[in-house]
Design a protein that fits this description.
Layout: H1 4-24, E1 35-41, E2 47-53, H2 60-76, H3 78-89, E3 98-103, H4 106-119, H5 148-152
Parallel strand pairs: 2-3
Antiparallel strand pairs: 1-2
Helix pairs in contact: 1-3
Length: 153
């Protein structure tokens, strides 16, 4: 469970990293820069785990390859990204956390789970007749009536 301070720092880092990718360092990324899906900060605020989402059109193999290239590019330029981030948040935090980048695969996982659920064949439930609820199964006594109104119907 994250503390309020961790949540606030993570939110600040997410906003500012998105601004760094879009405004200050767009020349590092051919095409679209990666999006910031999630940021998790360690309890001592020294390490920030940044989950990147990369939008790539095409088949799954090409998309995975392109996402890996983007992640490698971000990791190679980690020092410049951290420096640009430090310039933006220098008034809010004393120490800029070390940034560790990961790919966010939640969209691919959700698509896979959607496919699995879509492939399931679930038989339809049998239709219940109104009299079936009143009848007792073989070998059992009928259900007792709790209210007089039940007997009138």
């Amino acid at each position: 469970m994250e503390s309020k301070r961790q949540q606030k720092v993570a939110s600040l880092l997410q906003q500012e990293l998105a601004a760094v990718f879009q405004r200050e360092l767009p020349h590092l990324f051919p095409g679209l820069p990666p999006g910031i899906a999630l940021v998790r900060v360690s309890p001592d605020l020294g390490v920030a785990r940044v989950y990147l989402s990369v939008l790539v059109l095409g088949n799954a193999a090409a998309a995975a390859e392109k996402a890996d290239e983007q992640l490698a590019l971000v990791k190679d330029n980690g020092k410049a990204i951290r420096q640009a981030l430090a310039q933006r948040i220098r008034r809010q935090l004393r120490i800029v956390p070390e940034l560790v980048f990961f790919l966010d695969d939640s969209a691919a996982y959700a698509a896979q789970m959607d496919k699995v659920f879509g492939d399931l064949e679930i038989p339809a439930a049998p239709e219940a007749t109104p009299d079936a609820a009143d009848e007792a199964p073989e070998g059992r006594a009928p259900r007792p009536r709790l209210f007089a109104a039940d007997e009138d119907e």
